[in-house]
Amino acid sequence: MKKLVYRLLFALPLLALAGLPVSADTPPPMSATVIMTDTGFNPAAVTIQPGGTVTWINQGQQIHTATTIGGAPLPFNTGGLSTGQSASSSLGIPGKYYYTSATDCQGGIFYPNFPCQISFLINVTSASAEATSAAATAVSLPVTPTPTATLVPSNLPPPIATVNISDTGITPSSVTIALNGSVLFVNQGQNVHTATAPGNTTWPGFDTGGLGRGQISSIGFAQAGTFTYTSAVDCTNGNKTAGFDCGPFSVVVSPVALPALPNAAPTVAPTAVRPLAAPNPNTTVGIDDAGGFTPNALTIKAGQSITWVNRGTGVHTVTSDAGYTPSFDSGGLNQNQSFTVTFASPGSFGYHSQTDVTYFTDAGCGCTAANFAFKGLINVTP
Question: Is the pTM of this model over 0.70?
Protein backbone atom coordinates (compact mmCIF):
# COMPACT_ATOMS: atom_id res chain seq x y z
CA MET A 1 0.00 0.00 0.00
CA LYS A 2 1.42 3.33 -1.03
CA LYS A 3 2.15 5.78 1.71
CA LEU A 4 -0.31 8.62 1.78
CA VAL A 5 2.19 11.10 3.16
CA TYR A 6 5.95 11.10 2.86
CA ARG A 7 8.45 13.31 4.55
CA LEU A 8 11.78 14.92 3.72
CA LEU A 9 13.37 16.98 6.53
CA PHE A 10 15.93 19.66 5.62
CA ALA A 11 18.57 19.96 8.38
CA LEU A 12 20.04 23.37 9.32
CA PRO A 13 23.66 22.30 9.70
CA LEU A 14 25.93 22.23 6.66
CA LEU A 15 25.54 19.06 4.62
CA ALA A 16 27.91 18.08 1.83
CA LEU A 17 29.06 15.42 -0.59
CA ALA A 18 30.94 12.13 -0.41
CA GLY A 19 31.75 9.29 -2.77
CA LEU A 20 30.50 5.94 -3.92
CA PRO A 21 32.96 3.84 -5.93
CA VAL A 22 32.38 3.18 -9.62
CA SER A 23 33.79 0.17 -11.41
CA ALA A 24 37.37 0.71 -12.54
CA ASP A 25 36.31 -0.53 -16.00
CA THR A 26 33.86 2.32 -16.47
CA PRO A 27 35.51 5.52 -17.73
CA PRO A 28 33.80 8.85 -17.00
CA PRO A 29 31.58 10.18 -19.80
CA MET A 30 32.47 13.22 -21.88
CA SER A 31 29.17 14.97 -21.16
CA ALA A 32 26.51 15.20 -18.46
CA THR A 33 23.09 16.81 -18.09
CA VAL A 34 21.97 18.44 -14.84
CA ILE A 35 18.36 19.49 -14.25
CA MET A 36 17.74 22.73 -12.35
CA THR A 37 14.58 22.83 -10.26
CA ASP A 38 13.25 25.15 -7.58
CA THR A 39 14.49 22.66 -4.98
CA GLY A 40 18.03 21.99 -6.22
CA PHE A 41 20.09 20.33 -8.97
CA ASN A 42 19.65 16.72 -10.08
CA PRO A 43 21.90 14.81 -10.09
CA ALA A 44 23.69 16.57 -7.26
CA ALA A 45 27.08 15.45 -8.57
CA VAL A 46 28.39 14.34 -11.96
CA THR A 47 31.76 13.14 -13.23
CA ILE A 48 33.13 13.91 -16.70
CA GLN A 49 36.48 13.62 -18.48
CA PRO A 50 38.70 16.70 -19.01
CA GLY A 51 37.38 18.64 -21.97
CA GLY A 52 33.88 17.32 -21.36
CA THR A 53 30.72 19.39 -21.19
CA VAL A 54 28.00 19.85 -18.58
CA THR A 55 24.60 21.15 -19.67
CA TRP A 56 22.12 22.64 -17.19
CA ILE A 57 18.39 22.77 -18.02
CA ASN A 58 16.04 24.81 -15.87
CA GLN A 59 12.76 22.97 -15.32
CA GLY A 60 11.80 25.04 -12.30
CA GLN A 61 9.47 28.02 -12.16
CA GLN A 62 12.11 30.42 -10.81
CA ILE A 63 15.35 31.81 -12.29
CA HIS A 64 18.47 29.89 -11.22
CA THR A 65 22.17 29.87 -12.05
CA ALA A 66 25.04 27.39 -11.83
CA THR A 67 27.86 29.38 -10.22
CA THR A 68 31.14 28.02 -8.84
CA ILE A 69 32.16 28.48 -5.21
CA GLY A 70 35.16 27.61 -3.05
CA GLY A 71 38.03 28.19 -5.46
CA ALA A 72 37.09 26.01 -8.44
CA PRO A 73 39.96 25.21 -10.86
CA LEU A 74 38.15 27.18 -13.58
CA PRO A 75 35.24 29.36 -12.37
CA PHE A 76 32.02 29.32 -14.38
CA ASN A 77 28.63 31.05 -14.18
CA THR A 78 25.72 30.20 -16.45
CA GLY A 79 23.96 33.46 -15.71
CA GLY A 80 20.26 33.47 -14.88
CA LEU A 81 18.27 30.75 -16.63
CA SER A 82 14.48 30.92 -16.69
CA THR A 83 12.06 28.02 -17.23
CA GLY A 84 13.08 25.88 -20.22
CA GLN A 85 16.39 27.65 -20.82
CA SER A 86 19.70 25.79 -20.83
CA ALA A 87 23.42 26.57 -20.71
CA SER A 88 26.59 24.51 -21.14
CA SER A 89 30.14 24.72 -19.85
CA SER A 90 33.22 22.84 -21.11
CA LEU A 91 35.75 22.05 -18.40
CA GLY A 92 39.28 21.21 -19.51
CA ILE A 93 41.11 21.38 -16.18
CA PRO A 94 40.82 18.33 -13.87
CA GLY A 95 39.54 18.93 -10.35
CA LYS A 96 36.44 19.34 -8.24
CA TYR A 97 34.08 22.15 -9.21
CA TYR A 98 31.69 22.91 -6.35
CA TYR A 99 28.79 25.17 -7.29
CA THR A 100 25.38 26.50 -6.26
CA SER A 101 22.69 28.83 -7.60
CA ALA A 102 23.69 32.45 -7.05
CA THR A 103 20.09 33.70 -7.31
CA ASP A 104 19.11 31.39 -4.44
CA CYS A 105 22.16 31.13 -2.20
CA GLN A 106 24.70 33.94 -2.60
CA GLY A 107 25.02 37.62 -1.73
CA GLY A 108 23.09 37.18 1.50
CA ILE A 109 20.20 35.41 -0.24
CA PHE A 110 18.92 32.18 1.31
CA TYR A 111 15.86 31.09 -0.70
CA PRO A 112 13.92 28.76 1.64
CA ASN A 113 12.88 26.23 -1.04
CA PHE A 114 16.43 25.74 -2.30
CA PRO A 115 19.01 23.54 -0.45
CA CYS A 116 21.60 26.25 0.17
CA GLN A 117 23.11 24.16 2.97
CA ILE A 118 24.83 21.80 0.50
CA SER A 119 27.23 22.25 -2.39
CA PHE A 120 26.75 20.58 -5.77
CA LEU A 121 29.70 19.06 -7.62
CA ILE A 122 31.26 18.44 -11.01
CA ASN A 123 34.23 16.09 -10.77
CA VAL A 124 36.53 16.37 -13.80
CA THR A 125 38.93 13.44 -14.01
CA SER A 126 40.44 11.11 -16.63
CA ALA A 127 40.59 8.21 -14.17
CA SER A 128 37.68 6.00 -13.20
CA ALA A 129 36.11 8.29 -10.65
CA GLU A 130 33.85 8.38 -7.67
CA ALA A 131 30.18 8.92 -8.32
CA THR A 132 28.88 11.31 -5.74
CA SER A 133 25.42 11.72 -4.27
CA ALA A 134 23.83 14.50 -2.24
CA ALA A 135 23.21 14.21 1.46
CA ALA A 136 20.06 12.45 2.62
CA THR A 137 18.19 15.72 3.06
CA ALA A 138 18.67 16.85 -0.54
CA VAL A 139 15.71 16.37 -2.90
CA SER A 140 16.28 13.89 -5.74
CA LEU A 141 14.09 14.42 -8.81
CA PRO A 142 13.72 12.48 -12.07
CA VAL A 143 15.93 13.63 -14.96
CA THR A 144 14.69 14.43 -18.45
CA PRO A 145 17.01 15.40 -21.32
CA THR A 146 14.73 17.84 -23.12
CA PRO A 147 14.97 21.58 -22.42
CA THR A 148 11.44 22.21 -23.69
CA ALA A 149 9.71 20.03 -21.10
CA THR A 150 8.09 21.86 -18.21
CA LEU A 151 7.31 20.37 -14.84
CA VAL A 152 3.85 21.87 -14.43
CA PRO A 153 1.59 23.44 -17.08
CA SER A 154 0.36 26.88 -16.06
CA ASN A 155 -3.27 25.77 -15.78
CA LEU A 156 -2.52 23.23 -13.03
CA PRO A 157 -2.32 23.86 -9.29
CA PRO A 158 1.25 24.53 -8.13
CA PRO A 159 3.42 21.54 -7.18
CA ILE A 160 4.93 23.31 -4.16
CA ALA A 161 3.61 25.79 -1.62
CA THR A 162 5.59 27.53 1.12
CA VAL A 163 4.16 28.13 4.58
CA ASN A 164 5.93 30.40 7.05
CA ILE A 165 5.71 29.70 10.79
CA SER A 166 6.41 32.55 13.17
CA ASP A 167 6.09 33.02 16.92
CA THR A 168 2.60 34.47 16.38
CA GLY A 169 1.10 31.96 13.94
CA ILE A 170 1.23 30.41 10.48
CA THR A 171 0.84 32.18 7.12
CA PRO A 172 -0.85 31.79 4.76
CA SER A 173 -3.65 30.10 6.66
CA SER A 174 -4.54 27.93 3.65
CA VAL A 175 -2.54 26.78 0.61
CA THR A 176 -3.54 24.74 -2.46
CA ILE A 177 -1.26 22.28 -4.25
CA ALA A 178 -1.58 19.63 -6.94
CA LEU A 179 -1.99 15.97 -6.06
CA ASN A 180 1.48 14.49 -5.36
CA GLY A 181 2.78 17.98 -4.62
CA SER A 182 4.38 19.13 -1.38
CA VAL A 183 4.33 21.92 1.19
CA LEU A 184 7.50 23.45 2.60
CA PHE A 185 7.12 24.55 6.22
CA VAL A 186 9.72 27.19 7.19
CA ASN A 187 10.19 28.29 10.81
CA GLN A 188 10.98 32.00 10.74
CA GLY A 189 10.37 32.49 14.44
CA GLN A 190 12.70 32.37 17.42
CA ASN A 191 10.98 29.43 19.14
CA VAL A 192 10.44 25.79 18.18
CA HIS A 193 7.18 25.07 16.33
CA THR A 194 5.65 22.18 14.39
CA ALA A 195 3.10 21.62 11.66
CA THR A 196 1.02 18.69 12.92
CA ALA A 197 -2.16 17.06 11.63
CA PRO A 198 -3.62 14.25 13.75
CA GLY A 199 -5.08 12.26 10.84
CA ASN A 200 -8.19 10.08 10.82
CA THR A 201 -9.35 6.59 9.84
CA THR A 202 -8.62 7.18 6.15
CA TRP A 203 -5.57 9.45 6.41
CA PRO A 204 -2.53 9.07 8.70
CA GLY A 205 -1.87 12.78 9.16
CA PHE A 206 1.59 14.33 9.28
CA ASP A 207 4.06 15.88 11.69
CA THR A 208 7.13 17.92 10.76
CA GLY A 209 8.62 17.37 14.19
CA GLY A 210 10.04 20.31 16.09
CA LEU A 211 11.52 22.93 13.78
CA GLY A 212 14.07 25.34 15.19
CA ARG A 213 14.70 28.79 13.81
CA GLY A 214 15.43 28.61 10.07
CA GLN A 215 14.69 24.89 9.76
CA ILE A 216 12.53 23.53 6.93
CA SER A 217 10.39 20.44 6.53
CA SER A 218 8.79 19.24 3.29
CA ILE A 219 5.58 17.21 3.46
CA GLY A 220 4.25 15.45 0.36
CA PHE A 221 0.56 14.76 -0.26
CA ALA A 222 -0.61 11.76 -2.31
CA GLN A 223 -4.32 12.04 -1.41
CA ALA A 224 -6.76 14.74 -2.51
CA GLY A 225 -8.73 16.62 0.09
CA THR A 226 -8.55 19.38 2.69
CA PHE A 227 -6.25 18.66 5.61
CA THR A 228 -6.18 20.80 8.75
CA TYR A 229 -3.20 21.21 11.05
CA THR A 230 -1.66 23.42 13.72
CA SER A 231 1.53 23.66 15.78
CA ALA A 232 1.50 20.89 18.39
CA VAL A 233 3.96 22.56 20.75
CA ASP A 234 1.81 25.69 20.80
CA CYS A 235 -1.75 24.45 20.50
CA THR A 236 -2.37 20.76 21.35
CA ASN A 237 -2.04 18.38 24.30
CA GLY A 238 -2.90 21.17 26.71
CA ASN A 239 -0.37 23.60 25.22
CA LYS A 240 -1.43 27.19 24.60
CA THR A 241 1.41 29.55 23.80
CA ALA A 242 0.51 33.14 24.57
CA GLY A 243 0.27 35.25 21.42
CA PHE A 244 0.24 32.29 19.02
CA ASP A 245 -2.74 31.97 16.63
CA CYS A 246 -3.67 28.27 16.64
CA GLY A 247 -5.75 28.41 13.48
CA PRO A 248 -6.72 25.81 12.38
CA PHE A 249 -4.73 25.97 9.17
CA SER A 250 -5.26 23.90 6.05
CA VAL A 251 -3.64 22.32 3.01
CA VAL A 252 -6.00 21.83 0.07
CA VAL A 253 -4.81 19.07 -2.27
CA SER A 254 -6.39 19.24 -5.72
CA PRO A 255 -7.57 16.00 -7.37
CA VAL A 256 -5.59 17.15 -10.42
CA ALA A 257 -2.27 15.29 -10.25
CA LEU A 258 1.16 16.49 -11.33
CA PRO A 259 2.04 15.14 -14.79
CA ALA A 260 4.80 12.59 -15.09
CA LEU A 261 8.03 13.90 -16.59
CA PRO A 262 8.63 12.59 -20.12
CA ASN A 263 11.42 10.02 -20.44
CA ALA A 264 11.85 10.11 -16.67
CA ALA A 265 14.68 7.99 -15.39
CA PRO A 266 14.28 6.10 -12.09
CA THR A 267 14.99 8.27 -9.08
CA VAL A 268 18.16 7.25 -7.25
CA ALA A 269 17.81 7.36 -3.49
CA PRO A 270 20.17 9.96 -1.99
CA THR A 271 22.93 8.61 0.22
CA ALA A 272 23.92 9.83 3.66
CA VAL A 273 27.47 11.08 3.46
CA ARG A 274 30.42 12.30 5.48
CA PRO A 275 29.72 15.93 6.39
CA LEU A 276 31.89 18.92 5.59
CA ALA A 277 33.37 17.55 2.36
CA ALA A 278 32.47 20.71 0.45
CA PRO A 279 32.74 24.44 0.98
CA ASN A 280 29.72 26.27 2.36
CA PRO A 281 27.81 27.91 -0.51
CA ASN A 282 26.41 30.73 1.63
CA THR A 283 28.92 32.56 3.82
CA THR A 284 26.99 35.74 4.63
CA VAL A 285 25.78 36.38 8.19
CA GLY A 286 23.10 39.00 8.77
CA ILE A 287 22.86 41.16 11.89
CA ASP A 288 19.51 42.55 12.97
CA ASP A 289 18.40 44.54 15.98
CA ALA A 290 16.17 41.84 17.47
CA GLY A 291 17.64 38.45 16.61
CA GLY A 292 21.36 39.17 16.41
CA PHE A 293 23.46 37.05 14.07
CA THR A 294 21.65 34.95 11.43
CA PRO A 295 22.71 32.22 11.19
CA ASN A 296 24.42 32.40 14.58
CA ALA A 297 26.42 29.21 13.88
CA LEU A 298 28.07 28.55 10.52
CA THR A 299 30.46 25.84 9.31
CA ILE A 300 32.96 26.54 6.54
CA LYS A 301 36.14 25.07 5.11
CA ALA A 302 39.56 26.56 5.86
CA GLY A 303 40.29 29.34 3.38
CA GLN A 304 36.71 30.55 3.08
CA SER A 305 35.65 34.04 4.16
CA ILE A 306 32.65 35.15 6.21
CA THR A 307 30.94 38.48 5.52
CA TRP A 308 28.70 40.05 8.17
CA VAL A 309 26.11 42.62 7.01
CA ASN A 310 24.28 44.88 9.47
CA ARG A 311 20.63 44.82 8.37
CA GLY A 312 19.41 46.57 11.51
CA THR A 313 19.16 50.26 12.28
CA GLY A 314 21.35 50.13 15.40
CA VAL A 315 25.15 49.94 15.55
CA HIS A 316 26.56 46.43 16.11
CA THR A 317 30.03 44.88 16.09
CA VAL A 318 31.60 41.57 15.12
CA THR A 319 34.21 40.93 17.81
CA SER A 320 36.06 37.67 18.52
CA ASP A 321 35.75 36.23 22.02
CA ALA A 322 38.74 36.54 24.33
CA GLY A 323 41.61 34.13 23.74
CA TYR A 324 41.14 33.50 20.00
CA THR A 325 44.10 33.86 17.65
CA PRO A 326 43.91 35.59 15.29
CA SER A 327 41.45 37.98 16.89
CA PHE A 328 39.11 40.16 14.86
CA ASP A 329 36.96 43.22 15.52
CA SER A 330 34.81 45.03 12.98
CA GLY A 331 34.37 48.15 15.07
CA GLY A 332 30.90 49.70 14.96
CA LEU A 333 28.89 48.75 11.88
CA ASN A 334 26.07 51.06 10.85
CA GLN A 335 23.09 49.95 8.79
CA ASN A 336 24.11 48.14 5.54
CA GLN A 337 27.81 48.21 6.44
CA SER A 338 29.72 44.92 6.19
CA PHE A 339 32.82 43.24 7.57
CA THR A 340 34.74 40.24 6.17
CA VAL A 341 37.16 37.80 7.79
CA THR A 342 39.04 34.96 6.07
CA PHE A 343 39.56 31.87 8.24
CA ALA A 344 42.76 30.17 7.14
CA SER A 345 43.01 27.48 9.84
CA PRO A 346 40.57 24.90 11.25
CA GLY A 347 38.99 25.56 14.62
CA SER A 348 35.91 26.98 16.35
CA PHE A 349 35.74 30.75 16.69
CA GLY A 350 33.21 32.35 19.02
CA TYR A 351 32.31 36.01 18.64
CA HIS A 352 29.84 38.62 19.91
CA SER A 353 28.56 42.16 19.44
CA GLN A 354 30.14 44.56 21.94
CA THR A 355 27.35 47.11 21.59
CA ASP A 356 24.67 44.62 22.70
CA VAL A 357 25.71 44.03 26.29
CA THR A 358 24.45 44.16 29.86
CA TYR A 359 26.63 44.14 32.97
CA PHE A 360 26.13 42.20 36.19
CA THR A 361 28.03 41.45 39.38
CA ASP A 362 29.72 38.05 39.25
CA ALA A 363 29.19 36.44 42.65
CA GLY A 364 32.27 34.26 42.20
CA CYS A 365 34.78 37.06 41.84
CA GLY A 366 32.75 39.99 43.14
CA CYS A 367 33.59 41.83 39.94
CA THR A 368 31.52 43.33 37.14
CA ALA A 369 31.07 40.97 34.18
CA ALA A 370 29.57 41.43 30.73
CA ASN A 371 26.69 39.46 29.24
CA PHE A 372 26.56 39.76 25.45
CA ALA A 373 23.07 39.37 23.97
CA PHE A 374 24.30 38.69 20.44
CA LYS A 375 26.71 35.77 20.10
CA GLY A 376 27.87 33.66 17.17
CA LEU A 377 30.14 30.76 16.29
CA ILE A 378 32.20 29.93 13.19
CA ASN A 379 33.34 26.30 12.82
CA VAL A 380 36.20 25.89 10.36
CA THR A 381 36.98 22.42 9.02
CA PRO A 382 40.05 21.23 7.06
Answer: no
